[in-house]
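S.,

Sequence below, as promised.
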Amino acid sequence: MTEPIRVLICDDQALIRAGFATIIGAQPDLDVVGECADGRAAVELSRHLNPDIVVMDVRMPVLDGIEATRQLAGAGVEDPVKVLVVTTFNLDKYVYEALRAGASGFLLKDAPPAQLLHGIRTVASGAALLDPDVTRQLVGRYAARIRPAEDTPDDTALTPRELEVLRHIANGLSNSEIAATLVISHETVKTYVSRILTKLGLRDRVQAVVYAYRRGLAS
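The prediction came back faster than expected:
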């Protein structure tokens, strides 16, 4: 029998933590191994509990979710932990930085329980989670503050079609939506996405979105 996915919940609001714990703990394939109210505790508990995924708030006391994510999943971390950021869109202007810090995905706090569970399973499986309905709004809202960075790989390595797929990813389209837009198969889109990530040295779709905005490729 497959071991359940070990989940650590980090949120400074007790009611949110309790709600998440109830929803997650009711699933036979998920196991809540711990809860905490700030980022520093999340980092410390992760070292002791070895969760498969941390469900992370961003705005918290002591150590915010961005820095906690960087310490858990950022560049250079020897044994990174997968992080799913759960945020309030209208209040949280730091989600872009959380994605840069190493988060594997994000959801809004008002997402339905089924979407939260899907997000946890998706990120824990090694895939990235970007809600197509909010990606463009959430990242694009701060695109004016994002400038192309010299330390990002050169996108000239991409073919015109790969560049087109990357732009669609950055604008929040799922693989199925990209396939429909470009009139190609879902499997072909998956191949393009894989090639894009490999050529640019990116980990997942989250990093692809960040990359595209930093290079000014998103519309």
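Confidence is low (pLDDT under 50) at residues 142-149.

Coffee later?
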